[in-house]
Amino acid sequence: MVRRARNRDWFTGEVFRRTGIKISVISGDEEARLSLLGVLSVIEDRNGRKLVMDIGGGSTEFIFTDGANIAGAWSMEMGVVHLTEEYLKSDPPGERDLCALESEIKGVISELKALMKKEAVEPLEYSGKKGAVFVGTAGTITTLAALDQDLVVYDRERINNYTLTKEKVGEMYRRLSGMRLKEREKILTLEKGREDLIIPGSAITLLTMESFGFNEIKVSDAGLLEGIIIRRIGETKNA
Questions:
Q1: Taking the CA of residue 5 as centre, how many other CA atoms within 13 Å lie in the half-sphere pointing to its CB?
Q2: How confident is the model at residue 33, as a pLDDT?
Q3: Phi, psi angle pair for 107, to nearest 5°
Q4: Which residues make beta-bridge pairs with 72?
Q5: Cis ω for the linkage preceding 92 (within 30 of 0)
Q6: In contact, 88 and 101? CB cutoff 8 Å
Q7: 220 close to 55: Cβ distance less than 8 angstroms
Q8: What is the pLDDT averaged over residues 204-219?
Q9: In terms of DSSP bridges, do strands 49-55 and 133-137 run parallel, antiparallel, or are they unpaired?
Q10: What is the pLDDT of residues 9-50, one digit of tens each?
């Protein structure tokens, strides 16, 4: 979100002036490489073609990779905070809300596929039909994995490499979207602050699975943060 902001330079300068902390704003390509580095540090099967998805508040990153080689990466303006504010007007969300939400997500996924083809990255080659693996990282995916296992206490060892089926993601999406906010707040396995965001997040996950022909998604607790740490450790060793 800072990367796209018109007042980015003012913001980073103001943070430095007030706190002495220097913020480095990385490019979308660099973010993709660091996220992949983090994901591959915990995923057991690191070979073959993969679609790695990182759902964020302001955008969702899609990384298409063959092993550690990135074929393409796109940051799409499809974040859970924006989608929640724009489409979830009632509590619980009504049918019109959910239809509008799903229509927006489907449109962005279609745009993603068009961008891929422009860069000669064939969507079918990174689909479930061609044997690719779908990997998800960040809060939405790990929360769905915790919900599916009914984890009262978050355990990253049980999250990493956990497999979520499309059927289960669909069930959770329908169940959560049918609840009022106060009901979702009572679910112990649902991370605080994600009671509303989990609805568009699970919709993104489900509709991406449907569009790319995946019946399963592999879960990674590691992502961008771990990628940054791994790179810094490597830089320190080589210094």
A1: 11
A2: 81
A3: -65, -40
A4: 64
A5: yes
A6: yes
A7: no
A8: 97
A9: parallel
A10: 777 777 778 888 777 776 767 777 888 888 888 888 878 899
pTM above 0.70, yes or no: yes
Write 68-71 long-range contacts (CB < 8 A, 24+): 68/36, 68/40, 70/32, 70/33, 70/36, 71/121, 71/126
Question: DSSP string spanning the chain?
Answer: -TTT-TTHHHHHHHHHHHH-PPPP---HHHHHHHHHHHHHTT-S--SSEEEEEEE-SS-EEEEEEETTEEEEEEEES--HHHHHHHH--SSSPPHHHHHHHHHHHHHHHHHHHHHHHHTT--GGGGSGGGT-EEEEESHHHHHHHHHHHT-SS--HHHHTT-EEEHHHHHHHHHHHHTS-HHHHHT-TTS-TT-TTTHHHHHHHHHHHHHHHT-SEEEEES--HHHHHHHHHHHHHHH-
Provide the pLDDT for residue 101: 96
- Is-contact 12 25, C-beta < 8 A? yes
Token pair recorded at residue 143: 């929360």
Q: Which residue, 206, 167, 204, 187, is CA-closest to 87? A: 204
Query: What is the signed CA dihedral for 227, 229, 235, 238, rounded to 10 degrees?
Result: -100
Return the number of other C-beta atoms located less than 10 Å from residue 82's C-beta.
16
Distance of CA 200 to the CA centre of its chain: 11
pLDDT tens string 141-153: 999 999 999 988 8
User: Bigger pLDDT: 77 or 205?
Assistant: 205
Higher pLDDT among residues 235 and 205, named by residue: 205
Is domain 27-238 in CATH 3.30.420.150, yes or no? yes
CA atoms of 230 and 226, how far apart (whole Å): 6
